[in-house]
Amino acid sequence: MKNRLQRLCTACCFAALAALALPAAAQQSQPRWDALQQSHFPGKTLEAAPFIHLTAPSRAPSGEQVPFAFSIDHPMTAQQHIKSVTVFVDENPVPLTAVFHFNPQSGKAEISTRIRFESDSPVHVVAETNDGRLFVNTATVRASGGCGGPVNGDNPAALAAAGKMKLALDGPFKRGAVNTARLLIKHPMYTGLQRDLNTNGFRPAFFIDKIEVSYNGKPVMTADTAIGISEDPFIQFGFVADQPGSLQVRIRDNAGTTFRQSLEVGG
Amino acid sequence: MRRLLWLLLAVLAAQAQAAPLRLEQVAPGVYVHIGQHKDFEEGYDGDIANIGFIVGSESVAVIDTGGAYAVGMALKDALRTITRLPIRYVINTHVHPDHVFGNAAFLEDGPRFIGHARLPQAMSLRRDVYLRNLKKQLGAAADHSTLVPPGETVQDRLTLDLGGRKLELRAWPNAHTNNDLSVFDGASGTLWTGDLLFIERTPSIDGDVKGWLAAMATLDKLPAVVTIPGHGPVTRNKHQRHQALARQRAYLDTLLRDIRGSIRQGSGMPETMETAAASERGRWQLFDVVNRRNVNALYPALEWE
Asked: The pTM is what?
């Protein structure tokens, strides 16, 4: 998967460079999206899906921490469910922001998070069902300065704290129903596009690239995350709890270090 | 015909840019241009901050230069209607674009550019983003605007002699930004706070609120009579300054309390952007846009308290 992500990122970087070379008038968002579709879903048809509900501000106060959520009205049974959801911010230097993997234990294909916008951009959300159909919805956000923007924080302190987590249920435990949990990860999520004044170059990319959540040993949600996820990532997700148990999170950064956090619920 | 019209428009635009800024003499030899309360997103013209200069018997110190080369030029034109003395210093109170992009207009005068010890770093970090945003906001009116870093920085205090009057520069710990510098003119008892003090315009947070509140407590005790805030009208006595600081403190306290309350109650950031500090809404200009930005910046940090 990591290889795939890397390939995708590389493809996106070339797409970004190609777009930079275009005159301003040609930089409408649609060509970017057409190119993204062709590289990520070659030969596939994406069906417009109003049942993919998106929550994003039409105008974000800053591109650093833009609240963003999707919620997909679709069955989540073994026979019929949403398998994965891919989030693109078309105009970002790396448009592929995250791929979320779901299964019936997720309860609902639904995520609330915070993402980066380098400039005004459409965000495209593509959902794939277990039988291979692809659905898409989009929203446009006005924002700027989220990827190459300044890092004010103290680098050694940020690196020392990286990987700390907070995990909590949103509301009381509901046995046999979909529960919602909030995961907070302390992490600078360096994009590789931010200036490093000590070296006069750019601070190397350093980010969480994988989040795996399980409940009582069964996977409920996995995310492949990239630099479009905001600093100190926030991920809110659902899971089905048929009985009290242990919600477990394992995250990994792009240097290969893993961290774990767990929460006993319903006990 | 169309070409002629464009030419005419271009000439008119050039004239509009060249018009000297309107100045107010708030104390003997202390001149301020009061910026308009406009946001960076809607109708921004680079002329929103308080900028100006102080004239001594031998030289002049410019304090903040506006948000574009054109604004800096207009400030210089206005200055030249008042004095022919050399501009020996250009002082920046902090890194924000509405205060520094006019620096380039003064390069040809060969002044010493002076700022906080952390100002050069802040400028380097933000240069690309600031320039890109300025071009987007101003189009051709952003032309010639560059970030000119200070050649001389202030770690703690610095005294500048303009002849017959001395300016006391003071570098502050992390407050409104991490590079705030204030200027005190002892001769006239005038304090230039930069954005450590906002009047009327909603205070924007880009540093550390705790540090800012501490800086405000110190500002309140300074002997200055006239105080020039970074935005909004000049206060004429200590009582007025005290009231302005108290109002700003009330906003910052309320904002922190409300965001912490939201986080405790499990209310998310989008909801909190709508509700935090709502009780302060009627007291400030540009409240919705600036307050949302403040919540957006503070909420993710306060979650880790």
From this structure: 0.88
